[in-house]
Backbone:
């Protein structure tokens, strides 16, 4: 209901997965309801040395104080620890609500989109002679991918901390397609292989991100030791070609706004800014 009214999903993919499958034991689910149904929901999870939360109020129950009740509840559950709250879509009123809670803007995540019509449907990237790109093999490649993902996103607060359980949950999702999960391997003369990077694509079904199905540059990462081989560009081109081959018209991706180098690169490639997610931090309580 909230997604239909607001034009944006109120919860992140991670929160939705934990809502459906259960999350870590130290997480918290907060549900406001009356005799007629749910009024609002919040999810609270551990994040580094503090907590991270997301909350949503049923569109028919807004402007009745339920958002404040949810916010007060997650603040109380977080105690004196740092608390970060995501506002998806930066909807009208979200900034004012955050200011009323004395929250400060800490991170801005851009959603960028690009049409796939101009993408080369059959790219032939120039790869080193000992590097081959092939689709992900479920049950075989998870450990290698997790190692490289952790190295590629060592400073990313969410992506760098993915676990085998996180990957398993996504492999069980209807959208998962190993053919669109491309891995670049270095093959040594003795037959050993080393993963250098990957491009995991995703397809959002019609009605989720747009009226039509939309592709996503879901996770694109290269091992720091493989920088300089132009693998990022090669994997990007191959992944976009795969999405175009699926008959999709558009592709989206997410990038931190302050990653100006990446934003400029994506804009040069044809991506434009489409939507914004904002993370707010609670101000420390004065002694």
Residues:
């Amino acid at each position: 209901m909230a997604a239909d009214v607001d034009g944006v999903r109120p919860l992140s993919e991670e929160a939705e997965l934990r809502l459906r499958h259960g999350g870590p034991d130290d997480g918290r689910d907060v549900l406001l309801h009356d005799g007629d149904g749910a009024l609002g929901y919040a999810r609270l999870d551990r994040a580094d040395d503090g907590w991270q939360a997301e909350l949503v109020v049923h569109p028919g129950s807004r402007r009745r104080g339920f958002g404040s009740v949810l916010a007060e509840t997650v603040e109380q559950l977080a105690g004196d620890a740092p608390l970060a709250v995501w506002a998806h879509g930066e909807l009208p009123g979200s900034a004012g609500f955050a200011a009323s809670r004395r929250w400060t803007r800490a991170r801005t995540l851009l959603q960028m989109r690009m049409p796939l019509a101009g993408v080369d449907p059959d790219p032939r990237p120039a790869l080193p002679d000992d590097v081959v790109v092939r689709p992900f093999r479920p049950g075989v490649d998870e450990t290698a991918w997790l190692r490289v993902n952790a190295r590629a996103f060592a400073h990313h607060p969410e992506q760098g901390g993915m676990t085998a359980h996180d990957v398993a949950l996504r492999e069980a999702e209807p959208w998962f397609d190993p053919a669109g999960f491309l891995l670049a391997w270095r093959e040594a003369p003795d037959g050993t292989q080393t993963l250098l990077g990957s491009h995991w694509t995703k397809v959002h079904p019609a009605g989720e991100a747009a009226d039509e199905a939309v592709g996503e540059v879901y996770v694109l990462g290269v091992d720091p030791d493989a920088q300089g081989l132009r693998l990022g560009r090669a994997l990007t081109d191959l992944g976009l070609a795969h999405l175009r081959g699926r008959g999709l018209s558009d592709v989206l991706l997410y990038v931190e706004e302050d990653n100006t180098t990446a934003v400029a690169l994506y804009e040069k490639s044809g991506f434009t800014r489409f939507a914004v997610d904002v993370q707010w931090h609670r101000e420390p309580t004065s002694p």
